[in-house]
Amino acid sequence: MKNHKQNPHFILIGNQILKWYGQNARELPFRNTKNPYNIWICEIIFQQTRIAQGMQHYENFVARFPDVKTLANAHSDEVLLYWKGLGYYSRALNIHKASHQIMNDFGGVFPEKYEDILYLKGIGKYTAAAVSSICFGKQIPAIDGNFYRVLSRIYADDFDISSSQAYKYYENLALEMIPSNAAGDFNQAMMDLGSEVCKPRNPLCSECPVQENCIAFQTGKISEFPVKTKKVKVESLELQYYFVGFQEEFLIKQRGDDFIWKKLFEFPTDIPDDFREFSINEKIVKHKLTHKNLVININRVVLSSKSQLDKFAFDNGFSIINKDNSQQKSFPKPLENYIDGL
Ligand code: SF4
């Protein structure tokens, strides 16, 4: 990406941020590498998971799947298992599909070009920019919520971040301030500044390297930025499950590749009428996904014989499992919690 003529005042701010990063960068294991495979995996994990929560998962994931080839050769169930606890499992399935794309379309070598990285399954502009800048030294800003927040406050800029033009707008603004060849460090600096200092609520302005140049701070208008007008539509959805068991065992089946919770395991969603008399209780669980509020009704059905369980499993393609070996399967979070509570 070509850099146009830069604004010296903006460059000064960019340099202040970079200097601050040089002294305050968080010590994170993936900061010691420029291997695009590792950076890609950690970018995907930490987009929706806090660093402290996801660190062990990241370490375990790259220990088991240290490179693209190992990942591509693994079964998707095992990849999902290593994602267990992180949620948003579609990320794991996309990473797995992207590993096949790298093997098939790029000869097993992680692509260097921004457009090629963007072509990989599950990689959006932000991740492609982060990998390109950190691993390949490309001058491309990686714009995310942190970026929007910090820049909109520094410049008291009321450009609506929910607009479809926001990415391009802030990308151009960032290009005005990133010193030459420093996008990799600058993008990471913005990550740290946004999450550690310029937080969504109660930013720590007294620790901020750009306080004296921050218009929102200087004018006392921090809470007005960033501007976001469009509310994301959240849909409500009711789901029905039957936890069908006999003694220690119960029924599960793997979900398909469409809709939510792709490839995860679940309980039956319907039962024959003659099972209903064995229903002993019902639990209602509320769960939020990104754009959906779920209300999940889990009915517990305790059958009176093992043969009933076996026949239902055989006729309907279910597996029979117990709590211990359920640890080897990945379930949607509310169902995992239900099993843990047994
Ligand atoms: S001075 Fe405060 S509001 Fe401005 S960028 Fe720094 S932390 Fe954010």
UniProtKB/TrEMBL annotation:
<comment type="similarity">
    <text>Belongs to the Nth/MutY family.</text>
</comment>
<dbReference type="GO" id="GO:0006298">
    <property type="term" value="P:mismatch repair"/>
</dbReference>
<keyword id="KW-0408">Iron</keyword>
<keyword id="KW-0326">Glycosidase</keyword>
<dbReference type="GO" id="GO:0046872">
    <property type="term" value="F:metal ion binding"/>
</dbReference>
<dbReference type="GO" id="GO:0032357">
    <property type="term" value="F:oxidized purine DNA binding"/>
</dbReference>
<dbReference type="InterPro" id="IPR003265">
    <property type="entry name" value="HhH-GPD_domain"/>
</dbReference>
<keyword id="KW-0227">DNA damage</keyword>
<dbReference type="InterPro" id="IPR005760">
    <property type="entry name" value="A/G_AdeGlyc_MutY"/>
</dbReference>
<keyword id="KW-0411">Iron-sulfur</keyword>
<dbReference type="GO" id="GO:0051539">
    <property type="term" value="F:4 iron, 4 sulfur cluster binding"/>
</dbReference>
<dbReference type="InterPro" id="IPR004035">
    <property type="entry name" value="Endouclease-III_FeS-bd_BS"/>
</dbReference>
<dbReference type="InterPro" id="IPR044298">
    <property type="entry name" value="MIG/MutY"/>
</dbReference>
<dbReference type="Pfam" id="PF00730">
    <property type="entry name" value="HhH-GPD"/>
</dbReference>
<dbReference type="GO" id="GO:0035485">
    <property type="term" value="F:adenine/guanine mispair binding"/>
</dbReference>
<dbReference type="GO" id="GO:0006284">
    <property type="term" value="P:base-excision repair"/>
</dbReference>
<dbReference type="GO" id="GO:0000701">
    <property type="term" value="F:purine-specific mismatch base pair DNA N-glycosylase activity"/>
</dbReference>
<dbReference type="InterPro" id="IPR003651">
    <property type="entry name" value="Endonuclease3_FeS-loop_motif"/>
</dbReference>
<feature type="domain" description="HhH-GPD">
    <location>
        <begin position="45"/>
        <end position="196"/>
    </location>
</feature>
<dbReference type="Pfam" id="PF10576">
    <property type="entry name" value="EndIII_4Fe-2S"/>
</dbReference>
<comment type="function">
    <text>Adenine glycosylase active on G-A mispairs. MutY also corrects error-prone DNA synthesis past GO lesions which are due to the oxidatively damaged form of guanine: 7,8-dihydro-8-oxoguanine (8-oxo-dGTP).</text>
</comment>
<dbReference type="InterPro" id="IPR011257">
    <property type="entry name" value="DNA_glycosylase"/>
</dbReference>
<protein>
    <submittedName>
        <fullName>A/G-specific adenine glycosylase</fullName>
        <ecNumber>3.2.2.-</ecNumber>
    </submittedName>
</protein>
<keyword id="KW-0479">Metal-binding</keyword>
<keyword id="KW-0234">DNA repair</keyword>
<dbReference type="GO" id="GO:0034039">
    <property type="term" value="F:8-oxo-7,8-dihydroguanine DNA N-glycosylase activity"/>
</dbReference>
<dbReference type="InterPro" id="IPR023170">
    <property type="entry name" value="HhH_base_excis_C"/>
</dbReference>
<keyword id="KW-0378">Hydrolase</keyword>
